[in-house]
Amino acid sequence: MNKVLLIEDDVDIVQLLLIHLHDLDCEVEIEHNGKLGFAKAKTNHFNLIILDIMLPEMDGIEVCGRLRALDIYTPVLMLTAKSEEIDKVIGLESGADDYLTKPFSIREFIARVKAILRRAKISTEAKTIENRIEFNGLVIDPLMRRVLLNDQRIELTPKEFSLLLLLASSPGRSYSREELLDLVWGYEFSGYEHTVNSHVNRLRAKIEPDFEKPSFILTTWGLGYRFNDELPTKKSIA
């Protein structure tokens, strides 16, 4: 059974979502206050956090950002009544895994919850079977979610790590920005390509010896990005 933390101050929405989460065989804990929700989320024993942006005492963006700063990577589905694109981008950049704008259909809500839980399960299983990958001084360890460059640890956000692992797992394969959004962020629609660009730029700033002439993450002009397949490579048990 999946454990879900629902942080939402609208009682009617809480009751509606609670019914459908129970139908999905989820055990649900509820908080109506952002500060109290953050305190409960820090226990890090949930499979999913459903988080409203507009909350008393601490808004959802701050809650999500603080959790990620503590290296708590519980998947977050963010809810908000706002529909401006900048609000969506801020929500994504704070570390949310998915985003729903009110009013939303229950069918869409259920689909998003299922997709997040499915991706989380796949990711957990992958950590136990993936081997460490080495490329010319760059070491990617999926099990430990650790990246080393010339024996120095590189601190990456969860999305940066997932993006790097995806690209490095298939050197030479070009991914469009839309594909990367779907595979890393889980969105099945376009419109947030700049989010991919900003993450790639931050990754390059952290791992590339020369940001202006990247050697690991290359641009496939007119399409997206690929990992350099001409680098010496080695796979070993982590």
Write the layout of secondary structure elements.
Layout lengths: L1 E6 L3 H13 L2 E6 L2 H8 L6 E5 L7 H10 L6 E5 L4 H9 L4 E4 L4 H24 L2 E4 L2 E4 L4 E4 L2 E3 L3 H12 L5 E2 H9 L7 H15 L9 E4 L3 E4 L5 E4 L2
Parallel strand pairs: 1-2, 1-3, 3-4, 4-5
Antiparallel strand pairs: 6-7, 6-13, 7-8, 8-9, 10-12, 11-12
Helix pairs in contact: 2-3, 6-7, 6-8, 7-8
Using brief descriptors, characterize the structure shown.
238 residues; elongated; five-stranded parallel sheet; 2 domains; Arc Repressor Mutant, subunit A; 8 helices; five-stranded antiparallel sheet; Rossmann fold; 13 strands; alpha/beta
**Secondary-structure element order, N to C:** EHEHEHEHEHEEEEHEHHEEE
Helix content: 40-55%
Query: Number of helical segments?
Result: 8
CATH architecture of the largest domain: 3-Layer(aba) Sandwich
Q: What can you see in these coordinates?
A:
- With 238 residues, this protein is an alpha/beta fold.
- The chain has 2 domains: 2-126, Response regulator (Rossmann fold, 3-Layer(aba) Sandwich); 130-236, Arc Repressor Mutant, subunit A.
- It is 42% helix and 23% strand.
- The strands form 3 sheets. It has a 5-stranded parallel beta sheet, with helices on both faces. It has a 5-stranded antiparallel beta sheet with strand order 9-8-7-6-13, covered by helices on one side. A 3-stranded antiparallel beta sheet has the order 10-12-11.
- A hairpin with a 4-residue loop joins strand 7 and strand 8.
- The chain is elongated and about 55 Å long.
